[in-house]
């Protein structure tokens, strides 16, 4: 049975944080923006700040995240969607796979985020989805699951979530293995990995796959500590002690509340300036 562990924001906190917001968002009037970001350790945040140009290197070679200190930090993809869904002034970023009709996706430089624009390269905010593991600790079951994820058999499930699948053309054949596989990491991957796990279980009746959702760094730490078998990561693997299989390319969607009529398209520079705190009101986007 596939299980899911989500970090969910309290409804009370969400409502109270929005209670003081202006109510003129849908009236064509300018308003102050509520910049929303993910937590440190989130693979989505890492990919976003790198691609938008929010990383600055100091004299000692250290990298600094220039996201404004006034941003509202939320610890899960689901929490971000809920926050933007109730806050008419919010702007945020989420995995394209998480996008639903509770929010509105914003075009970047006139390009909408979707599988076609990602495949063509027209939509610039994209990143790899991968599964990380320790080579010397890889079990037969883990190897078989990774083989399945990269197979033609998994491609349809991956692309149903709007991802560009990085698979081969080989059909997966069950080896009738037995056991339990535990996977943890980025909440951005949880939806597609759960679907893959459920189908893998159907093909392997004596296998249980448990999927736990938190963040990329937590997943990587759990793999290194031997707590889980595989980590879900939503950016390029930089840890040289681990290996990974990239199975899809994801888009990072910029989202606002559905009642927000002022923001439908942003340039990459405007997006960067919003997250640096240099643009704070929709009137400055003119």
Automatic annotation (TrEMBL):
InterPro entries: PBP_domain, Phosphate_ABC_transporter. Residues 1-21 form the signal peptide. Belongs to the PstS family. It is a lipid-anchor. Keywords: Lipoprotein, Palmitate, Phosphate transport, Signal, Transport. This is Phosphate ABC transporter, phosphate-binding family protein. Gene3D superfamilies: Periplasmic binding protein-like II. It is found in: Cell membrane. It comes from Anaerococcus hydrogenalis ACS-025-V-Sch4. Residues 21-45 are annotated as: Disordered. PANTHER family: PERIPLASMIC PHOSPHATE BINDING COMPONENT OF PHOSPHATE ABC TRANSPORTER, PHOSPHATE-BINDING PROTEIN PSTS. GO terms for cellular component: plasma membrane.
């Amino acid at each position: 049975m596939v299980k899911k562990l989500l970090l969910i924001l309290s409804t009370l906190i969400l409502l109270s944080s929005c209670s003081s917001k202006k109510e003129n968002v849908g009236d064509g009037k300018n308003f102050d923006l509520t910049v929303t970001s993910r937590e440190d350790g989130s693979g989505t945040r890492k990919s976003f700040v790198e691609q938008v140009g929010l990383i600055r290197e100091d004299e000692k070679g250290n990298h600094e995240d220039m996201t404004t200190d006034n941003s509202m930090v939320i610890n899960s993809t689901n929490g971000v969607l809920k926050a933007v869904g109730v806050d008419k002034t919010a702007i945020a970023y989420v995995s394209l796979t998480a996008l639903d009709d509770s929010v509105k996706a914003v075009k970047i430089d006139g390009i909408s985020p979707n599988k076609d624009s990602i495949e063509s390269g027209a939509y610039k905010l994209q990143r790899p989805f991968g599964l990380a593991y320790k080579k010397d600790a890889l079990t037969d079951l883990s190897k078989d699951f990774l083989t399945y994820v990269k197979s033609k058999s998994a491609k349809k499930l991956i692309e149903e979530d709007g991802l560009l699948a990085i698979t081969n053309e080989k059909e997966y054949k069950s080896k009738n293995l037995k056991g339990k596989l535990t996977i943890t990491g980025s909440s951005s991957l949880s939806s597609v990995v759960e679907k893959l796990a459920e189908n893998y279980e159907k093909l392997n009746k004596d296998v249980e796959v448990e999927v736990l959702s938190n963040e990329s760094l937590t997943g990587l730490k759990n793999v290194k500590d031997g707590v889980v078998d595989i980590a879900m990561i939503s950016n390029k693997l930089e840890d040289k002690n681990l290996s990974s299989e990239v199975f899809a390319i994801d888009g990072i969607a910029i989202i606002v509340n559905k009642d927000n009529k002022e923001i439908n398209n942003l340039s990459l520079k405007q997006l960067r300036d919003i997250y640096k705190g240099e643009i704070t009101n929709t009137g400055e986007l003119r």
